[in-house]
Amino acid sequence: MKSTLKILMNLANGKTTTITVPNPRADITKADIDAFVEAITSTKALIVAGYPAVGLKKAYIQNVDDQEIVA
User: Which superkingdom is the protein from (predicted)?
Assistant: First the structure.
């Protein structure tokens, strides 16, 4: 099963952007996400089309299981 961490960030213009992290740690916590978001927003490390990330919209882990139909 493939696992991907998706972090959706709100931008200053009201739009959103997504940060995708393949194969995240199994023990990642809300505190880890909150610390990451604080670091990104306080330093303006993420700017999309001239607009900085201003906060977290949501974060989730997406699990994908490939099922082969025909070999």
Answer: Bacteria
